[in-house]
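Worked example 3. Consider a protein that binds benzoic acid.
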Amino acid sequence: MNNIPPNEAKISARAVAAFANTPNPRLRQVVQSLVRHLHAFASEVELTEEEWLEGIRFLTDTGKQCDGIVRQEFILLSDVIGLSMLVDAINHRASEAATETTVFGPFYIAGMPERGHGENMAFTPGEQALVLGRVLDAAGEPIAGAVLDVWQTAENGMYSGQDPDQPLTNLRGRYRTDEEGRFAIRTIIPVSYPIPTDGPVGRLLQASDRHPWRPAHLHFMVMAPGHRTLVTHLFNHDDPYLESDVVFGVKDSLKVVYQPCQANHPLAARHDIDGAFRLASYDFVLEREIA
Ligand code: BEZ
Ligand code: FE
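Given these inputs, the predicted complex is written out as structure tokens:
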């Protein structure tokens, strides 16, 4: 780091000190640290006026690409710079027994339909899949009545809400575990897809020679009373983008195999599946809510 001239160091010190009387101690800590680090960054790179203005334009454009429904360019920005995964890691340090977490992403839609055991949530074509498993507590006991809010893209790589040709409820739904903690989701195999590149985040990726792809995954938010809500994905184990996920979200423990099953597999009759399908199994483990 370069030596900061005294008059510049004085500006930074005064700016940090200006927040010293913030009554809320946590807000004081966060704002003072943010100002300190932003000043250190500007000093380190010796930010030019044109670069400062370009940064302001970039953040302004980022704000303009937020629609409050499924386009949230600020979350996307946080994701591609690894900040979302860092915050996730900081906040799940003590979760040894629990299923690992990953990014929430900007495409969740609340209030999707409750679906029955094994109900199909796919209204668009794709390779048929069945995802089975249980929701357990940290002691390995099944949790009955846990809710799994699930979402994924269609085969064209777009989420409902992004794509006017899909019904909003396509590839989304809320499943509930039975008395043995079991769930069954009928869907299609997830595909890899690029995050939106038509905004400032796309321009940043392009300028940095980075690709925009996420490895194929199924999103989960798993909720049960008395337990900490789990936000995670299941990744297809053989996806070519597992090592270079644009948002750094992959964890080994979240990879699943979709086994090929013939039409005469006993689960086909049980879940009313016509023809061949793929079967993935996974047990989620929730930790107790911290009091
Ligand atoms: C997603 O998986 O939906 C997602 C996560 C981070 C950024 C963009 C998309
Ligand atoms: Fe996704």
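Take a moment to read the result before moving on. The radius of gyration is 23 Å. The mean pLDDT is 95.
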